Amino acid sequence: MRSDQLKPTTLDLFADAEVQQPATSQQIGEQSLVLRGFALPWLERLLPALDEVLLAAPFRQMITPGGFTMSVGLSSCGTLGWTTDRTGYRYTHTDPQTAQPWPDMPTVFLELAQAAALAAGFGDFMPDSCLINRYVPGAKMSLHQDKNERDYSAPIVSVSLGLPAIFLFGGHARSDKSQRVPLFHGDIVVWGGVDRLRYHGILPLKDGQHSRLGAQRINFTFRTAG
Ligand code: MD6
Ligand code: FE
C-alpha cells in the first residue's frame, strides 16, 4: 500500500465540507472578523442550493421608503425575509411578490453560517433569515445600520461570492470615518456584540468577470431577525 493511502492528504481533508479548513482571519473591530476563504470548501453545495432558492424567489429591485430603487437585487430565504417599500423596511413571513412563504433556508446555508459564527466565537447562532443580495457592476449599498432585527445579541454572518467589493466599515454615527475592507470570493464577515450596530456599506462594484459567477457579486447575510 502506498503511504499516501494510509493517511489522509491535505486535499482529502479539505474536500470534506464538514471539516472546516483553518481560514486566515482578520479582525476589523472589537467583535468583527473577516474569515478569508471560509466559504470556499462549501461552494459546490452552496451554488445549487442558491439556484433552487432563486427559482422560488428571484432577485428583484426594491424601493426604499425614500422612493429610490435599490441598485442591488434582493431575495431571501428562511422564516423571515427582509423587504423594503414606500412604507418602510421590515421582515415578512411571505415574499410580497408571490404572497408565498419565503423559500426554506437550505441546510447547507445554515450549516455554513453556524460554522462561521462558531469560528468567530459566537456559539449557538440560530439564524431565521438569510438576505441574498446581487450586485452587478455599478451597484452599491449606501452606509446603513442593520437594525430591523428584534434582538441585537445575535451576530450577523455575511458571505461574499463572485466579484470582489470594498466593504465600508464605519462607526456608530453615520459621520464616523469608515475603514475600507476588500472582500473576495469565499470571504465571510462575522460581526456582533459591541460592533453589531456599526454603520457599513459597499462601494460601487467594479466591472469584472468572475470565473465561477460571471459579472456579479452575491452576498448572503444571515441574521436572527425574529
Ligand atoms: C454586502 N452587507 O456585503 C452588504 N450587513 O453586500 C451588509 O449590509 C452587511 O455584510 C450586516 C453585516 C454584514 C454585512
Ligand atoms: Fe447591512
Structure, described:
There is one protein chain. The protein is of the alpha+beta class and 226 residues long. The chain has a single domain (25-223), classed as Jelly Rolls (Sandwich), CATH 2.60.120. The protein is 15% helix and 34% strand. A hairpin with a 2-residue loop joins strand 5 and strand 6 (88-92). The relative contact order is 0.20. N-[(3-hydroxypyridin-2-yl)carbonyl]glycine is lined by residues 133, 141, 146, 156, 158, 167, 189, 191, 200, 202, 219, 221.
- What is Rg? 18 Å
Give the fraction of residues assigned to helices.
Answer: 10-25%
Strand content is: 25-35%
Give the full name of the CATH homologous superfamily: Alpha-ketoglutarate-dependent dioxygenase AlkB-like
Q: How many distinct helices? A: 3
Question: What is the third-level CATH name, the topology?
Answer: Jelly Rolls
- List the bound ligands: N-[(3-hydroxypyridin-2-yl)carbonyl]glycine, fe (iii) ion
Topology readout:
Layout: H1 10-15, E1 24-29, E2 32-36, H2 43-56, E3 60-63, E4 69-78, E5 81-85, E6 88-92, H3 107-119, E7 129-135, E8 141-144, E9 156-162, E10 165-169, E11 179-183, E12 188-191, E13 200-202, E14 217-223
Antiparallel strand pairs: 1-2, 2-12, 3-4, 4-7, 5-6, 7-14, 8-13, 9-12, 9-14, 10-11, 10-13
Residues 144, 146, 200 line the site of fe (iii) ion.
